[in-house]
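wait is this the right file?? whatever heres the structure
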């Protein structure tokens, strides 16, 4: 890896809350949610679900992203909950990416509110890395009304760590010669993709800070924590050679994906998201009057890696349940438990036919399933996507 590389990590400050605030102000609102005891997430009526984003004034109360809404309300009884609006977030995310593409064409959108930029060789255009980052921050604030943090380094890992330093609306550097002073004194659980369980295990080994981890014997750690131990040791020492990957869309198929503002670690939660993605893809396939013969599931993990797996279907189909069953099968075969930040479903090998090759050993009533999908499509077309939902996609209380 060349030390001449310059990588930015751009991260929106309290993204969902900021975007709700900007949208409210743009539509005549007089209060800025970012200055209030406000959080986005959960079901406002039942007060279930998790916190997706929270304002800075909630910090003294200990409200954290990803915790159950009921816990947050116990900590901060005056907390005002806002319902999430995915269309609003998508709008501002796209606007942000449009600005970033004015600085480089090498962009990897890591989640809906963050992206890596390869800024190598752009100094003649935009000045030093810090000057370029400040220019981006100012443009985002002035044109879009929200703020971002930008981390700068020679690799993605350190750039992401840097962007998480003091917030909001700040630029931070974290080059290899700065990690001992800027990163090593931090608690080990501040290290990117060290979760709660990993932190507890590291603590039991006497590892309290990122510096402790960096100086710990690598072979011993790998013997105890296997592959994840090696990944954490490399991170503590600032070792990362992953590239900024801008994945273009493939027009020869149908796809849908979503980035998640927190780590998905439970299979059931991942499969609920995959169900929604599959339903949307299958509906588009039916609208075009075609069937598909191949399905693909792709992942982006919180350790900056990507993965995908596909399979050939036994028969061309446009049936939601049939596609979803194969999506779940691929997920179970491919997922190794690494926390997930993006999930996607894609179907391809278009078959413009209504004919289905039947199997002697398949007694499934495909005609009934097709009529069910047609009925669901008709209801949604007339009354909107939220008019009817499958029971499996509705969050249950515990």
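ok assuming it is, sequence goes like this
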């Amino acid at each position: 890896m060349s030390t001449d590389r310059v990588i930015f990590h751009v991260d929106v400050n309290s993204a969902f809350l900021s975007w709700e605030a900007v949208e409210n102000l743009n539509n005549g609102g007089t209060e800025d949610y970012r200055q209030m005891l406000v959080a986005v997430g959960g079901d406002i009526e039942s007060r279930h679900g998790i916190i997706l984003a929270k304002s800075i004034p909630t910090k003294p109360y200990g409200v954290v992203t990803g915790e159950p809404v009921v816990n947050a309300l116990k900590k901060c009884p005056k907390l005002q909950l806002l319902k999430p609006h995915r269309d609003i977030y998508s709008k501002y995310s796209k606007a942000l990416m449009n600005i970033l593409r004015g600085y480089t064409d090498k962009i990897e959108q890591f989640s809906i509110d963050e992206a890596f930029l390869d800024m190598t060789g752009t100094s003649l255009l935009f000045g030093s890395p810090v000057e370029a980052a400040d220019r981006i921050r100012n443009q985002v604030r002035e044109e879009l009304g929200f703020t971002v943090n930008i981390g700068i380094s020679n690799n993605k890992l350190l750039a992401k760590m840097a962007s998480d330093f003091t917030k909001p609306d700040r630029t931070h550097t974290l080059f290899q010669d700065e990690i001992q002073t800027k990163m090593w004194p931090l608690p080990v659980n501040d290290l990117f993709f060290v979760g709660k369980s990993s932190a507890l295990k590291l603590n039991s080994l006497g590892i309290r800070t990122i510096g402790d981890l960096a100086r710990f014997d690598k072979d011993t750690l790998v013997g105890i924590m296997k592959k994840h131990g090696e990944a954490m040791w490399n991170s503590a020492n600032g070792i990362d050679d992953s590239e900024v990957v801008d994945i273009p869309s493939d027009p020869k198929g149908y796809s849908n994906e979503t980035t998640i503002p927190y780590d998905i670690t439970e299979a059931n939660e991942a499969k609920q998201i995959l169900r929604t993605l599959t339903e949307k893809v299958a509906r588009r396939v039916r609208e075009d009057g075609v069937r598909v013969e191949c399905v693909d599931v792709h992942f982006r993990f919180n350790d900056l890696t990507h993965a995908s797996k596909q399979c050939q279907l036994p028969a061309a189909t446009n049936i939601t349940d049939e596609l979803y069953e194969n999506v779940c099968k691929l997920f179970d075969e491919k997922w190794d438990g690494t926390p997930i930040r993006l999930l996607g479903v894609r179907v391809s090998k278009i078959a413009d036919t209504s004919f289905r090759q039947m199997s002697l050993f398949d007694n499934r009533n495909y005609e009934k399933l097709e009529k069910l999908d047609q009925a669901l499509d008709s209801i949604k077309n007339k009354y909107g996507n939220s008019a009817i939902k499958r029971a499996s996609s509705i969050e249950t209380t515990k």
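The chain has 13 helices and twelve strands. so i think its the right one actually
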